[in-house]
Amino acid sequence: MNWLLVALVVATASLGDILQTMRMKRHGEIRDFRPGALGRTLAAVLRSWHIPASLGLLAISFFAFVTLLSVAELSFAVPATAAEYVLSTVLARWLLGEQVNWKRWMGAGLVGCGLGLLAL
Amino acid sequence: MIPVALGRKTRVLAAIVILANVFGNFFLSLGLRHSGAGPIVSPHGYLAALANPWVSLGVTILILWMLARLALLSWADLSYVLPITSLGYVLTAMLGRLFLGEQIPAARWAGIALITAGVFLVSRTAIRTAGDRR
């Protein structure tokens, strides 16, 4: 059950992050940090389905993490959710077109090996 | 060159980000153990857990963590914020060992070390590799 919960925490958080990144990249870099301008940016990005959907996914991720903490040790639960680095790297390559170099793949691989040790 | 005042502000906020994440998760875990409710799977279970003062404290600290991280990211590179975040995995395990009585086998310590190294390596890559998509 613990690894199922880890999978739910990680999958929803990764998808939420990807949707947020997708929408914010389409918006472009924020250069005006005045409250009015930030408010207009927020209103603009909230009108698309990406941001509300990502907030829903991140909420599911948080509640699943609370459930995970209710059944698993802290020293297992927190490092196990680092699987998000592996999934996010793969999704960022496929869905966002990010260039993933060998160093980033190797980092994700090390996280994967670490997760393998947690599973022992 | 980073101005001295900004360097100090960055270090202080970075410390707050790390400690808020570690202690937020710690108090959440502590509260869930104290409530003794077992696995939480229903909305009522979440509400009941929030009634525990340790859980509420943990959630409050995690909200502060998110705000502090956003503030730090407004001027610091993601490649600076990510490696310091990975320190949290080690500190969390140490708190679990010291204050929650968790028995951490050697394989788990090795796993935490590999995860920390992996996150650190990812953080040493370029921040931006894809253009804006309009």
Keywords summarizing the entry:
heterodimer, A: 120 residues, mainly alpha, 6 helices, 82% helix, 0% strand, B: 134 residues, 5 helices, 75% helix
Q: Can you walk me through this structure?
A:
The complex is a heterodimer of chains A (120) and B (134). In chain A, 82% of the residues lie in helices and 0% in strands. With 120 residues, chain A is an all-alpha fold. Chain A has one domain. In chain A, 39% of the residues are buried. By secondary structure, chain B is an all-alpha fold. Classes of the chains: A mainly alpha (120), B mainly alpha (134). At the A-B interface, helix 1, helix 3, helix 4 and helix 6 of A face helix 1, helix 4 and helix 5 of B.
Q: Classify the helix fraction of chain A into a percent range.
A: over 70%
Say how many strands of chain A there are.
0
Number of strand segments of chain B? 0
Radius of gyration over C-alpha positions of chain A, nearest whole angstrom: 17 Å
